[in-house]
Amino acid sequence: MIPLDHILLLSAILFSIGVLGVVLRSNVIVIFMSIELMLNAVNLSFIGFARSLDSMTGVVFIFFIIVVAAAEAVVGLSIILSIYRTRKTLNIDEFNLLKW
Amino acid sequence: MLTIFYIFAVLSLLGALGVLFLQNPIHCALMLVGTFFCLGAVYVMLNAEFVAVIQVLVYAGAIMVLFLFVLMLLASGDQTQFAVKWDAGKILAVVVTIGIFFQIASVFLDSEMTLGPKGDYPIETVEDIGSITLIGRLLFTEYVLPFEIISILLLVAVIGAVVIAKRRFN
Q1: What is the value of ipTM here, to two decimals?
Q2: What is the pTM for the complete model shown?
């Protein structure tokens, strides 16, 4: 039996690395990968809690989270494709059309 | 058991650090696949075999192939433009991120965590009936409405992706 604390610690570290990736990297695709990493960290803590609380609800919710992650990846990557057509770059610092 | 968990935990952290630090986005994608595999192994250890299979099939398979496809279409040779430019905002962001980490960690490290009441599915029941049977039963009885909503969400995402990627902006 793996202690819940260790699972949650792993999940917290993975989530923080994901946040760091989002705030530090400037390649928009790598930022997307970091978001996937954060979603996975949350999945891990869901499973940890589900196991230690003898519940199946967490597992069912992971099912939903994975579907949302897939939808998010598909729409996000098509937005990236569409931006790349007009701006010819993947650098997030140059996506400033909505800034004022 | 615990040793295997630590091995996979360290491997998944190494993969995550690779995503954070490697310059080439294709290397980042491959590191992320490694992280997903290691997390899948952790899921198996936590008696969630179905989620582990979905993790490998959907995340490590489908989603990462999608990422690699987009990288193949868009990857530019020059990676130096993506180097981190350290300014006050970036340093502040790192400090805030470390703060977020300690905020999360303080929940379960500092004090004794009080968990809610136990559910109806102890490990013996799950192993007896099988986790896939239980998930299927829950999905089509208690969670049938979210299940239908999520299917509509997938449909909307597919249509939206086709529309956004196909349209030409001038």
Answers
A1: 0.91
A2: 0.91
